[in-house]
Amino acid sequence: MAAARSFISTALWFIAAGIIFSMPGLAYLAVIPMTVLAVGLLADPPEGISVERELVKTNLRVGEELRVSVRLKVRRGLGFVVIRDTLPEEFALVDGSNVRAFFKGPRELVVEYEYVIKPAKRGRYRIGRSEVMGYHVFGLKPSRWGVFGEETYLSVLPRVSLPKRTRTPVTKSQIPIPVTSVSIRGVASTDFREIREYRAGDPVRFINWKASARKGEVLVNEFEKEGKKTVLFIIDATGSKVGSSVENPLEYSIQLVSSLAYYFTKRNYNVGLYVVGHGKLILPATGSKQLYILVKTLLELEEVEVEKGDFVRAVEGLKHVLIRYTPLVIYVSNLLPERLAEVREGIRRLRPIYRDKRLPMLVFDVSTYSLLEREVSSLILLEKWALRHDLLRAGVYSILWDPTREDVTSVVTKTVRLIR
After folding, report:
1. Which part of the chain is the DUF58 domain (predicted)?
2. What pLDDT score does 136 carry?
């Protein structure tokens, strides 16, 4: 071994120097490296290792910090101990370190340390067993490597952003949820819906005198009926190859749908989901169990290759759901010019199902092209605005959303104010 040869060479050098220079004291110094060598050969590298890892929770949301506590115990040996936890690449190290080094002396080594991590992407992740390397104190014996402790599994849920509390302006709803999706036997609740013209039989107490005076006609406040409205999300999971694995249209779409689904289910709405590209359908329902199913589906969602006509096939496959529930349809996608004809055809096939003049549909165009070069992103933005105007002419309201410039909370607040 190189280390042992080094100690022996040092001892021989002292002896030789003492003889050459007639200095016995110098020769006696050879005792030091030889003593160290003897002690080193008697000692073993650190062993008898155990690792315990503790996490506050195993379910967290994107961007939420998680503290990891580690307890390392080394019973025998003499030398240095290096311990490492291999983290998924989607996790950022916020505080502390997942790689630590300690010295194991004659006594048992027991150390505790912590580090903080933060996930950047939703999904299911595994933190493997801790890797531990034991190095001999003088390098006289081979190092020992092993994995210890238990594996840890984490579920990172999409981030949920709630709308800000703002006073809803007295305007007519731009995107009304179809009346047929509400129980006609329900009584009026205290949730304001919109101001409309007076109809025979409307209670006098519902007349909005201020609005009537301004308009010169009798207007009444309409309130929501106690019943279960229905919202159907259609999310496009076909890959657009834009951005990174963390910042891309699908990841932001999942965050938006999760936030809106949470908002609607907490208000006793029926909420359903269809995934374009996967053909996966979750029938509309309400309650905490439905929210769990929706989030679980979004958690495991992966991109698929682009296939033309997917939105049209989605509408055809959803006809039985649309006829039964007549829901508000919220379509979330990264709209591309070459797929505009497909979206138009899907909208055309939706119209016969609804009797309302305004099609109860909202389109979110999720764009992350601002991450590209300025000239390219500006050109794409012009195309996006042209697409938006095309949809407006087709009678569908759309929102062009750039997540890099407008956070989810703002767009959810805007959506809630549009939909009643």
Report:
1. 194-341
2. 83
